[in-house]
Design brief:
single chain, 463 residues, alpha+beta, Uridine Diphospho-n-acetylenolpyruvylglucosamine Reductase, domain 2, Uridine Diphospho-n-acetylenolpyruvylglucosamine Reductase, domain 3, Alpha-Beta Plaits, 4 domains, seven-stranded antiparallel sheet, five-stranded antiparallel sheet, 15 helices, 35% helix, flavoprotein, Oxid_FAD_bind_N
Length: 463
């Protein structure tokens, strides 16, 4: 090990796994953005809180920056190590530590894959309800770092609603035990909530106590074809008034075309500009009849052009694939992504303004968008036209993002709904946060990480 700093780290922690092979540096040094060339110093894979503390203390002494790493499924560059940082991968800290049947909590290590969390909860007759398409590869620590939302926010809320307690190694090496699973705790500042969504800039989560809940009642899944954009909110209002919604997701014909080319099966004949996948409680005949009545009213009003209701679990999964397979189907094209949100009441006006902006600014690029109408979150994917150089494409997209940020500010929205700020969106933070807020955020960072070693360059543009 030629670097004396790494030699000292190995001397202190002889059992610590340290990776320095070029292929490993590339693999662990990037996330799904693929826009930056990975260049980490090394990769470390601790297995205990004590090792994480020792690594952080070493990093402070050596002034080595640390990039915490989970499943690296992020889309904002939050897990990129491009400037000689030490990547601290938590993938070996992936166990269930405790289950409390009375409190209905599951305590896990941060490297546990979300799908494995779901399975562990089901084995105990309960569910962890936060869910999204990347469940098979994202980690619970990364979900906490970005306050991930997903497809069932309309029913269950974001990650932060389901975190009962955290153990965190702060940037100064201190081990913090936050909230300890309490339901009521009015004893001052809630640092647990401060850590959620902080993108690894304040501390490294080494243990999470998750709230679990009862499995949802039997449900049905319906795919709807809509004639225009205005129908999205009309159908949402109709279904929300008549049904208990678990999810309400939309996508465009462009998105459908890519998913079908990726292997999904068409469920509705013909071409339609907009589609909705919705899931709702259907535990009894009354709820099932309510769904059919809502569908028929939507057809009568001209808000729904066609639809199909799943008749089996397999068909429900096939309908969901049309929505959940979008990101994977677009991945080979390396799209430029925006992840934005506005209040639900502001969605109609924002959608019209956004659509006009995208059509004007991207006359040659294909724009694929989809999202969570029920919580005001939209995902915009811009595909690079053939013949346009990568750097020119990125420059064009960043110009449009500036315009989009101004539009969001006018509608009181956010440039990041659920993917964090990272490297991609740090230049636009001021469109979402006031100067006073950003100054306070910097002050908080200084307290928890006085030497600025945790994920520098993320969140703040001039970090």
């Amino acid at each position: 090990m030629s670097d004396p700093r790494l030699a000292e780290l190995s001397r202190r922690l002889p059992e610590l796994r340290v990776l320095t092979a070029p292929a490993e540096l590339e693999h662990y040094g990037r996330d799904w953005t693929r826009r930056w060339t990975p260049a980490p110093l090394a990769i470390v894979l601790p297995t205990s809180a004590e090792e994480v503390q020792a690594i952080v203390r070493w990093a402070n002494e050596q002034r080595v920056a640390i990039v915490p790493s989970g499943g690296r499924t992020g889309l904002s560059g939050g897990a990129v190590a491009a400037n000689g940082e030490l990547v601290l991968s938590l993938e070996r800290m992936n166990r269930v530590l405790d289950f409390d049947a009375v409190d209905r909590t599951l305590t896990v290590q941060p490297g546990m894959i979300l799908q494995h969390v779901h399975e562990a909860a089901r084995e105990r007759g309960l569910v962890y309800p936060v869910d999204f398409a990347a469940r098979g590869s994202c980690s619970i620590g990364g979900n906490i770092a970005t306050n991930a939302g997903g497809i069932r926010v309309i029913r269950y809320g974001n990650t932060r609603e389901w975190i009962a307690g955290l153990k965190v190694v702060a940037g100064n090496g201190e081990l913090l035990d936050l909230n300890r699973g309490l339901i009521k705790n009015s004893s001052g500042y809630d640092f647990r909530q401060l850590m959620i969504g902080s993108e690894g800039t304040l501390g490294i989560v080494i243990e999470a106590t998750l709230k679990l809940t009862e499995p949802p009642p039997p449900s049905q899944v319906m795919l709807l074809a809509l004639p225009d954009m205005d129908a999205l909110m009309q159908v949402f209002a109709l279904f929300r008034a008549r049904l208990v919604l678990q999810a309400f997701e939309f996508f465009t014909d462009h998105a459908l075309r890519h998913v079908l080319a990726h292997g999904a099966q068409r469920a509705i004949d013909g071409d339609h500009p907009y589609y909705v996948v919705t899931e709702f409680d259907a535990a009894d005949e009354h709820q099932q009849e309510a769904a059919l009545t809502a569908f028929e009213q939507g057809m009568t009003e001209g808000w729904i052009s066609d639809g199909v209701i799943a008749q089996s679990e397999a068909q429900a999964a096939a309908l969901w694939r049309l929505r959940e397979g979008i990101t994977e189907s677009l991945a080979p094209r390396r799209p430029y992504k925006n992840d934005v949100s506005v209040r639900i009441s502001a969605v109609p006006a924002f959608l019209h303004e956004m659509q006009a902006l995208l059509a004007r600014e991207y006359p040659q690029a294909e724009v694929v968008w989809f999202g969570h109408i029920g919580d005001g979150n939209l995902h915009i994917n811009v595909l690079r036209p053939d013949g346009l150089a990568e750097d020119a494409f990125i420059a064009q997209c960043e110009h449009v993002t500036k315009l989009l940020a101004v539009t969001l500010q006018r509608h009181g929205g956010s440039i990041s709904a659920e993917h964090g700020i990272g490297l991609v969106k740090r230049a636009y933070l001021e469109s979402t946060r006031s100067a006073a807020e950003i100054a306070l955020m910097r002050g908080v960072r200084q307290v928890f990480d006085p030497n600025g070693i945790l994920n520098p360059g993320k969140l703040f543009a001039d970090d």
